[in-house]
C-alpha cells in the first residue's frame, strides 16, 4: 500500500484519480493549491487507486495522506 | 673521490641490515588488513583512490599508538586534477578507528599542514568516536580536531566523507566542515549508536534509523549528498573540489567556456509558463543558461523547493541558487532558508560568484513554519547575501513577491547586477492577494466577485506588478529576454572578476 501525501499545507483543488483507477508512476492523482501555486500530487507507485481520503476544498497539512494506491494489483 | 662515491666506512653487511630493517618496518605497517563489514577498501586504499593516481604521499607512516599497529589514521597529501589536497583517512582496522590521543595528534598535524599551506582537506570518516581507553586524552584530542575544523573554516574548503558508522567525535567533526557526503547503507552519523540509545532512553532503533544517509540527506540536512558506493564518494569529492579554489583568496579555477545545451537554449524563451501558478522544472531553465558541462547539486533531497548547485558559466566556476517551482511550488520555508543561507555563505567565503534565479511565491506562512522559526532562519538568508562580497548576479525569471523577493539576492541586499525577464512580476504580494486587500469593499458588493477579482488581478498584474516600475526606478538594472540571460551574466562576470574592464 502506497499513500500519496501532501508535500505542503494546502487546499485540495482538484482530485483527478478515482477509486478503482489504474495508475502508473508519475501520473497526476490530484492538484493542491497553496501559495497561489497549483501543486500536482504524483503517484510514486503503480497500482490501482484503493481509496481517496480527501475532498475538494479540504485543507490538508504537510504529510497528510491523500490517496491510497494498492500496489499488489499493479 | 666524488660525492657519488660511497664512503668505505660503512661496510656492506651493515648497510644491508638497516635497509632490511626499514623494508620490514614498511611491510609490517603497510600489510593489508581485510576490511570488515560493508567496507570495501582499506584506509590507505581510500586515500590513494581519492587522489590522482600515484600522487598520495603519506605523512608519518611509521607512527604508532602502540601494540605495533598504526596511529589509527592514514594522513597525507596528493593531488586531484593536479591541485594539491590533504587527506585524512580513518583506519577502521586499528581499534575500529576510535580516536585516541595519538590518532588525534596525527589528524591535527594534517589539519595544521592544510591550514598553514592553504590546501583543501578531505576527511574520510570511519570511526566509532573517542577511544575510551585513552580517557581524557582522547577527549582533549577530539576537542583539538574540532578547534582546527573551526579555524580551517576561514581558510580552506573542508569535505567530509562518511564511509562507516561514525559516532560522537567522528560525527561532530564533519558537522564543522563545509560539505558532507554519505555512502548509502554503509555510512552513518550519530551522537551514539543503537546500544547506547537503547540504554539511555529506551528507544529501539537501528543504526540506519538513527543516523543513516536517508535521514541525514532528506530530513535533518546534516549531510549534503548521498552516494551508492565508496568510489562514487571519491568521484563526487573530486567533482566538488573542481569548482573550488584551494584556499580563501586563492585563484578561481577557470575553464574554457562551453555553450549552453543547444536544445535547452531553443526551449528557453517558451519554457516558463505565463500563468504564474503553473509549475515547471527550474533545471531545464538552468540548462539553457549555464555551460553544458559538469554540475554538482548539493542537498538535492533536503528542502527541494530551492536548488543549490555548483556549475560553470562562460568557464567561471559559480554557485547557483534557484527556486524550484516543481517542488512545493518553489516556496521558501525554514529549511529552505537554512539550506540557501549556508550555500551563499560558503560561496562568499571562497569568492565564488553567486547566480540567483528567482521564481518564488513567498515565504510559507502558518503555525508550522512559525513554530520552526522561519523568521530567524529566513533572516539568515538575508544576512548571508549582504555579507557575501563575491560577485552576485540575480535574475527574476517569473515572480518575486514580498519578503521572498528581498531574500532572493535582491538589489537591496547588494546584488551587483539585477535583471528581470520581460514576463516577470515583482510586487509586495501576488495579484490575487493584493486585489483581495485593495478592493475588499468592491468585491464584497459585487454580484460576481470571482469575475471581478480576476479582472482586477489582471489589471494589477499589468499595471503594478510588471518589472518596468522596478526598472524605471533603477531597482532592477534592466528588463531582458530569457535568451539574453547567458550573455548578460557572462559579461557581468568578466567585469566583476576583473577579466575585462568592459
TrEMBL record, chain A:
SUPFAM superfamilies per UniProt: Single hybrid motif
InterPro entries with a match to the protein in the record: Biotin_Carboxyl_Carrier/Decarb (IPR050709), Biotin_lipoyl (IPR000089), Single_hybrid_motif (IPR011053)
Coiled coil stretches, renumbered: none
Keyword Cytoplasm in record: no
Top-level taxon: Bacteria
Domain Lipoyl-binding: 1-70
Pfam families: Biotin_lipoyl
UniProt keyword list: Biotin
PANTHER family, per database record: OXALOACETATE DECARBOXYLASE ALPHA CHAIN (PTHR45266:SF3)
Identification of the protein by name: Biotin/lipoyl-binding carrier protein
Originating species: Aeromicrobium ginsengisoli
Amino acid at each position: 500500500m502506497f499513500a500519496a501525501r501532501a508535500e505542503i499545507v494546502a487546499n485540495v483543488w482538484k482530485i483527478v484519480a478515482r477509486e478503482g483507477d489504474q495508475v502508473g508512476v508519475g501520473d497526476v492523482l490530484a492538484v493542491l493549491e497553496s501559495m497561489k501555486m497549483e501543486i500536482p500530487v504524483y503517484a510514486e507507485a503503480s497500482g490501482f487507486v484503493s481509496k481517496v481520503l480527501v475532498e475538494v476544498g479540504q485543507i490538508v497539512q504537510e504529510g497528510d495522506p491523500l490517496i491510497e494506491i494498492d500496489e499488489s494489483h499493479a | 673521490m666524488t660525492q657519488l662515491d660511497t664512503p668505505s666506512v660503512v661496510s656492506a653487511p651493515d648497510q644491508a641490515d638497516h635497509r632490511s630493517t626499514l623494508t620490514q618496518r614498511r611491510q609490517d605497517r603497510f600489510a593489508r588488513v581485510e576490511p570488515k563489514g560493508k567496507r570495501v577498501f582499506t584506509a590507505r586504499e581510500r586515500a590513494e583512490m581519492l587522489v590522482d593516481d600515484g600522487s598520495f604521499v603519506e605523512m608519518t607512516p611509521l607512527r604508532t599508538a602502540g601494540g605495533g599497529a598504526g596511529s589509527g589514521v592514514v594522513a597525507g597529501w596528493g593531488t586531484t586534477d593536479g591541485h594539491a589536497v590533504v587527506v585524512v583517512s580513518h583506519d577502521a582496522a586499528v581499534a575500529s578507528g576510535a580516536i585516541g590521543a595519538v590518532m588525534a595528534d596525527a589528524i591535527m598535524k594534517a589539519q595544521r599542514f592544510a591550514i598553514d599551506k592553504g590546501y583543501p582537506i578531505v576527511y574520510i570518516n570511519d570511526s566509532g568516536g573517542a577511544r575510551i581507553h585513552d580517557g581524557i586524552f582522547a577527549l582533549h584530542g577530539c576537542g583539538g580536531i574540532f578547534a582546527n575544523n573551526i579555524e580551517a573554516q576561514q581558510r580552506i574548503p573542508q569535505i567530509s566523507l562518511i564511509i562507516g558508522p561514525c559516532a560522537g567525535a567522528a560525527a561532530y567533526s564533519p558537522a564543522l566542515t563545509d560539505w558532507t557526503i554519505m555512502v548509502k547503507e554503509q555510512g552513518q552519523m550519530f551522537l551514539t549508536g543503537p546500544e547506547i540509545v537503547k540504554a539511555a532512553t529506551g528507544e529501539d532503533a537501528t543504526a540506519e534509523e538513527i543516523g543513516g544517509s536517508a535521514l541525514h540527506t532528506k530530513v535533518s540536512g546534516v549531510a549534503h549528498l548521498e552516494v551508492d558506493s565508496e568510489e562514487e564518494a571519491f568521484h563526487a569529492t573530486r567533482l566538488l573540489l573542481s569548482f573550488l579554489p584551494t584556499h580563501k583568496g586563492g585563484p578561481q579555477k577557470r575553464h574554457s567556456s562551453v555553450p549552453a545545451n543547444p536544445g535547452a537554449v531553443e526551449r528557453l524563451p517558451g519554457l516558463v509558463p505565463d500563468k504564474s501558478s503553473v509549475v515547471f522544472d527550474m533545471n531545464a531553465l538552468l540548462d539553457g543558461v549555464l555551460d553544458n558541462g559538469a554540475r554538482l547539486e548539493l542537498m538535492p533531497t533536503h528542502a527541494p523547493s530551492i536548488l543549490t548547485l555548483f556549475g560553470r558559466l562562460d568557464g567561471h566556476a559559480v554557485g547557483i541558487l534557484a527556486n524550484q517551482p516543481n517542488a512545493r511550488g518553489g516556496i521558501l520555508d525554514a529549511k529552505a532558508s537554512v539550506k540557501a543561507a549556508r550555500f551563499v555563505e560558503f560561496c562568499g567565503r571562497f569568492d565564488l560568484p553567486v547566480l540567483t534565479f528567482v521564481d518564488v511565491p513567498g515565504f510559507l506562512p502558518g503555525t508550522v513554519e512559525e513554530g520552526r522559526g522561519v523568521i530567524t532562519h529566513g533572516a539568515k538568508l538575508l544576512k548571508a547575501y549582504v555579507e557575501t562580497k563575491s560577485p552576485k548576479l540575480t535574475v527574476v525569471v517569473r515572480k518575486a513577491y514580498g519578503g521572498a523577493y528581498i531574500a532572493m539576492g535582491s538589489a537591496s541586499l547588494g546584488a551587483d547586477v539585477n535583471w528581470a525577464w520581460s514576463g516577470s512580476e515583482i510586487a509586495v504580494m501576488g495579484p490575487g492577494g493584493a486585489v483581495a486587500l485593495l478592493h475588499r469593499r468592491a468585491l464584497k458588493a459585487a454580484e460576481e466577485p470571482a469575475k471581478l477579482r480576476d479582472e482586477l488581478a489582471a489589471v494589477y498584474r499589468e499595471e503594478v506588478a510588471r518589472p518596468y516600475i522596478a526598472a524605471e526606478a533603477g531597482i532592477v538594472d534592466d528588463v531582458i529576454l530569457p535568451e539574453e540571460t547567458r550573455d548578460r551574466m557572462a559579461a557581468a562576470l568578466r567585469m566583476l572578476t576583473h577579466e575585462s574592464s568592459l
